[in-house]
Specification:
This protein is 82% helix and 0% strand. The protein has 294 residues and is mainly alpha-helical. The longest helix has 44 residues.
Length: 294
């Protein structure tokens, strides 16, 4: 028994080394003074300073931050409302729509990316043809040209972020006392007041977790962004890929370290919130059981 336990521990250690040793090496060499990736020449921060003078990186960072924040906000609103709608359905319709909701998460990113790209190209072509038709008929030409860009990138991120918000909010809905909203309305609150002042506060942990997950997924996405951003827009993941294709620069180590740190901090926040939520729920159930036993 002890021998099997020891082998299991060694196996787990080897797995963790295999997973995290490359990331650790990347982080260490992001502070290496030499461009040589095999020789340590001393500690430096100038690769991080160089990022501040790289216009392509700065623009990609602005695009990444803008898309991630906007996508997280919109997906949080849509996902919360959709979760409430799913929860209000009967069992079979709910199971059907939950299955549909799970498709973007289980589907390969490249399939989702190509599908969204074809959809956006189709609609942009229709809109451009409509603008051309209106111009031919009226002589008034609108100075617009619909194409893949920031808007299509944002719509794509909203599309794959929303299911994660739904899955984060649904557990809170299952724990919600259905009588709270009715009790608030019996006491004189309008349905909207009951929703905003009674229901939403109960859903806040799931909503916040869903928003953080959505933001993390957007910051980290490459494949779907690559197909839906077009030629004029690039996020950080795409910029790192472009730099790596040209040559492996120490700046890639620096920007990858920054991305890893951002994602890791957000994941820690999510896990801490989940643990605290579970502890609070356990305390609440324990208090109810104690009161019931009296």
């Amino acid at each position: 028994m002890r021998k099997a336990l020891g082998i299991s521990r060694i196996y787990n250690i080897l797995v963790y080394i295999f997973l995290y040793a490359p990331i650790l090496v990347l982080i260490i060499f992001s502070f290496n003074d030499s461009k040589n990736r095999a020789v340590w020449s001393g500690f430096t921060l100038h690769w991080y300073v160089d990022l501040l003078h790289n216009d392509a990186i700065i623009n990609a960072f602005i695009v990444t931050l803008g898309v991630s924040v906007l996508a997280a906000l919109v997906a949080t609103v849509f996902g919360t409302l959709a979760a409430i709608g799913f929860f209000s359905m009967r069992r079979k319709p709910r199971a059907f729509f939950m299955g549909v909701n799970n498709i973007p998460m289980t589907n390969a990113d490249i399939i989702t990316g190509v599908s969204l790209m074809l959809l956006f190209v189709f609609f942009t072509q229709i809109l451009n043809d409509l603008v051309y038709f209106v111009g031919m008929q009226t002589g008034f030409w609108l100075p617009v040209d619909f194409h893949l860009g920031f808007i299509t990138l944002l719509l794509a991120h909203i599309t794959f972020d929303t299911p994660y918000v739904i899955l984060s909010v649904l557990p809170c809905l299952r724990q919600l006392d259905k009588n709270l909203s009715e009790a608030a309305q019996d006491l004189g609150a309008t349905p909207m007041q009951a929703f905003t002042k009674v229901v939403l506060p109960q859903l806040r942990p799931g909503i916040i977790n869903g928003a953080i997950i959505a933001f993390t997924m957007s910051v980290d996405d490459f494949v779907i962004s690559y197909f839906t951003a077009g030629a004029d827009v690039s996020n950080l993941a795409m910029e790192v890929y472009s730099m790596a294709r040209r040559h492996i620069s120490p700046e890639i180590n620096a920007i990858s370290t920054i991305l890893f740190t951002i994602v890791m901090i957000l994941l820690i926040v999510i896990n801490v919130r989940s643990i605290r939520q579970e502890q609070a729920e356990a305390k609440r159930l324990h208090a109810l059981q104690r009161d019931a036993s009296r």
